[in-house]
Amino acid sequence: MKAVGLTRYLPIDDPQSLCDLDLTEPPPPRGHDLCVRVEAVAVNPVDAKVRAPKATVETVPRVLGWDAAGVVEAVGDAVTLFRPGDAVYYAGDITRPGSNAQLQLVDERIAAHKPRSLGFAEAAALPLTAITAWELLFDRFGIDPQGAQRGRSLLVLAGAGGLGLMTLQLAKRAGLVVIATASRAESTAACREFGADHVVDHAQPLPPQLAALGHAQVDYVANFVDVNRYWELACAVVAPQGKIGLVTTPRGPVDLEPLKNKCVSLHWEFMFGRPMFATPDLIAQHRLLTEVARRIDAGELRGTLRQRLSPINAANLREAHRRIESGRTVGKIVLEGWS
Question: Residue 216 and residue 214: Cα distance in Å, rounded?
Answer without folding.
Answer: 6
